[in-house]
Protein: Oxidoreductase
Amino acid sequence: MRWRDRYGLRRLRGPKIAKFDRATTDADIEALVAFAKSRRGVEFYVEPETFATNTTAVAVADDGEWTRRRVGSPAVIRKVARDLALPVYDVQLTGYPPRMRAYNERQKRAEG
Structure:
């Protein structure tokens, strides 16, 4: 991690860290930001921390293309989404968007 806590990862995640997962880094957040800036209609979906993995966020584009990265805590991705003026949802409340599944199906057909 960089010497500067640019996204508030250490400050916002609190004292708990998932047991088997690696720590969230600025590169994880920067990958989500780069994805959001290079695609249209991006929305963030926050996935809860589990015993094995840290809190993650899925960025889903307008066409259903998606990427998942560790974010450390929901507060971190909310801050990033606010800075980018993009919506953020709790996946436990909303579920994943149907376009994400449709994108996965298109990818499977294209490979096979």
Q: What stands out?
A: The CA atoms of residues 21 and 50 lie 10 Å apart. The chain has a mean pLDDT of 87. Strands lie at 43-47, 56-60, 66-70, 88-90.
